[in-house]
Design brief:
The chain has 86 residues and is of the alpha+beta class. The chain has two helices and two strands; from the N terminus they run H-H-E-E. It has a two-stranded antiparallel sheet. It is globular and about 50 Å long. InterPro entries: Glutathione_peroxidase, Thioredoxin-like_sf.
Length: 86
């Protein structure tokens, strides 16, 4: 038997309709750590993709590290890889 209920749905991560999960994540970590001399933010702005607010999720693959205790440890920019030193 297959699943008969929706497993995924689109949610808002920015703006007034921001999902409560992202509201909590962003409140705990309002800015993302980026690699040195990343330039990612500047590239997004040059393509007309500037965030409306400083704490907005910038792009896909922005990451939040959450500890086993449920507390947000850090937020990382989309171009930060697990191999990047902090």
């Amino acid at each position: 038997m297959g699943v008969t209920f929706p497993m995924f749905s689109k949610i808002e991560v920015n703006g007034e309709g921001r999902h409560p999960l992202y509201q909590k994540l962003i409140t705990a970590a309002p800015t993302a750590v980026a690699p040195e001399e990343s330039g990612f933010y500047a590239r997004m702005v040059s393509k007309g993709r500037a965030p409306l607010y400083p704490d907005d999720i910038l792009w896909n693959f922005e990451k939040f590290l959450v500890g086993r205790d449920g507390l947000v440890i850090q937020r990382f920019s989309p171009d930060m890889t697990p191999e990047d030193p902090l």
